[in-house]
Amino acid sequence: QVQLVESGGGLVQPGGSLRLSCAASGGTFSDYAMGWFRQAPGKEREFVAATRKKSRNSYYADYADSVKGRFTIYRDDFKSTMYLQMNRLKPEDTAVYYCAAEAALALVRPEYWGQGTQVTVSS
């Protein structure tokens, strides 16, 4: 029912920035909690950031401790797109980043996943 497509990944030097995008289709975007997960080589997929509905067009943002203060999640419901602005990137941020969605007020058990976009932080 819902399709998610990530974009914006790439190679960046430590301390640099990237902005990831997640374009959604096939559902009513505002009905879904949205978020980002990542998976590094040899490691389990981990939570990065998520939105949680506050009102009809207002959201809270939640972050993993490892990215708090460096990453910002936001969404544009008119464009059915969610973003992850990543600043002061570190080599340990290297991973495949996945967009996730759930028909709920908060992202607890994601129902839909994108294909992922590679982020590599290296000199």
Explain the overall architecture.
- The protein is mostly beta strands.
- It is 0% helix and 54% strand.
- It is built from no helices and 11 strands.
- A hairpin with a 4-residue loop joins strand 7 and strand 8.
- The protein is globular.
- The model has no long low-confidence stretch (mean pLDDT 95).
Relevant terms:
globular, mainly beta
Category from helices, strands and their pairing: mainly beta
Distance between the termini: 40 Å
Share of β-strand residues: over 45%
Distinct helical segment count = 0
Summarize the amount of helix as a percent range: under 10%
Please state the overall shape, judged from the principal axes of the Cα atoms. Answer: globular
Q: List segments where confidence is low: pLDDT < 50 over at least 5 consecutive residues.
A: none
Short description:
The chain is mostly beta strands and 123 residues long.
